[in-house]
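The methods section describes the discrete structure representation at length, but only in general terms. An entry of this sort, consisting of the sequence and the corresponding backbone structure tokens, reads as follows.
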Amino acid sequence: MELLFFIERVLWAACVLGEALVLCRLAREGLMRRYPFFAAFLVAESACSLVLMQTVTGRAYPDAFRICTLIMTVFRLGVAGELYERICEHFPGIGRFRAGMAVVLVLLAALFSISTFRPNLLDHRAFPWTVVVVVQRFQSEILAGALTLTWIFLRFVLSIRQPFQPNVLNHWRIGTIYFGVSGAAYLADFLTGQAMAVLLINSAMLTAHLGCFFAWFRLLRRSGEKVPAFQRLSTDQVQAVEQYNRALFETVRLLPGEISARQAENRDIP
């Protein structure tokens, strides 16, 4: 137990150092103005980590952890909103509302955090407390799922081949992994509850987070703000897409008739 606790503290301190290095990277590459919420998130998480390190063995830890969780809810949603706004920049037709999306999410998160700072435990099942508790408890899972679903929607549902800025694409991928690992670790801690298992899970989570910080440090560069040249489709590819669209339209047009015929056949069967 003592060895696992020591390993966890070392990894925790290494993550704080990793966050500081990513901040230095953002400042050196001139990306602070480009990703202000992400930079604020790193500062807030480092500060919360330092506070929790000082109280981890004392009675004040639960209160400090609760306050830090409320604070980080705001900044995590801010990072997701900022990333969503950067993704929307690649699609000018979305409109001007994309610029205020991150601000709206942060204000909502701040409202949730303020309203639950002194919650009424007798009414925790009443609306809106239930929604607020779910968002706070599963914030990492929600953010990871939202980023993943955004990628699936753009890539496979809309079949968009629009090239993204390397910084946005890398930040998108690393952020999804970061939030996904956090959510999986918190869920595993909740299901196990044993001290040794929790230490092992937290150590694995911190190791993954350290890898994410290293990836952010290596991949976020000033040159990554340029959008790669768009590769236009060839004539054969355009014809294949048009043929596929015609076949899909024909299938949709004939579908009601086929459904009616099948229903008529089923009615004739005794």
Notes: The chain has nine helices and no strands. Confidence is low (pLDDT under 50) at residues 116-130. The chain has two domains: 2-226, 234-270. The CA atoms of residues 48 and 68 lie 6 Å apart.
